[in-house]
Structure formats: structure tokens, C-alpha cells
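call fold(seq) -> C-alpha cells
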Amino acid sequence: MPKIVVTEESLIDVLSIIRNWQGKLTWGLLCEEVACHLSIEKVGVTRQTLSSYLEIQEAFTKRKKELRDAVCEQHKPSESEGYNLEYWKNKALALEAQVEVLLDKNEAYKQRFIKWQYNAYVHGVRISALDNAVVVDENTDVSNVVQMLEKPFSEANRREG
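ret:
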């Protein structure tokens, strides 16, 4: 069974790597960087693996275009500025990339919610029924509920109709 390279947690890291990329961006270089960052073998990360994730494909295309279109104005800090300025520039870039990833993810969740809302309306499901479906309190293990919801329905449990 193939090893899963990109998980929910590592997806944010991969997108951050792409958004902070400086210099020439290729799938090969990205695969090497992702393998190094995730501490896995280089052969485990391929262009096909990464490009199969829509968010990664879109981020790669967008960053490649940005790098191509960018007009590089190199400013070298003076000795008095030291490395502190470079550190904070990199930190700001990383935080901006993280914000962009989270905004994109939030937008995807909003779109998904709208689909669910429409489907619930079409099938006559009321909001009160959706709100009462799962009782979440301090004794509820939310991770078990999420895992249950991520599993596909089996053929035997599907309603015809």
C-alpha cells in the first residue's frame, strides 16, 4: 500500500513551502524540499503525488506565475542592520503565507457549507435536525465523530431514492 505523503496537517506545511518559495520553482525542486521538510524519502514524493491535490496544484501555479512576473528589487541590508532584518522579513513572509493558506481553507469550508445547506434544503432536512444530530459536550470525543463522518457510506447502508 502506498505511503500517504500529504495529510491534513502536512498540507498546510506544503502550501507554506510553496508560498514562501524564492528562486526557480519546479516540481522536482518542490518534491525535494517537501521530502526534506516532511522527513521522508525523496522517491516517496513525486510531481504526480503533489499535483493530485487541487490546493497544491493551484498554489504551485499561482506562485510560479508570481515568481515569473516579479520584478526583483534586491535590497541588501547594511552591516548595521545585521541579520535581524532578514529574520523578520522571512518571519513576515511565513506568516503572510500561513494567513493566505488559512483564508483559502476557510473559503473552501464556506463553499462546502453552502453545498450542504442547499442539499439539506432539497432533501427536506431542517436546520434544527442538523443541529441536534451530534451532541458535543466535554465528554464527547470529537475526533471519533470526525473519523466516522469522513468514511464513505457502505452500499448496504445507502437509501435508495
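The longest helix spans residues 84-122.
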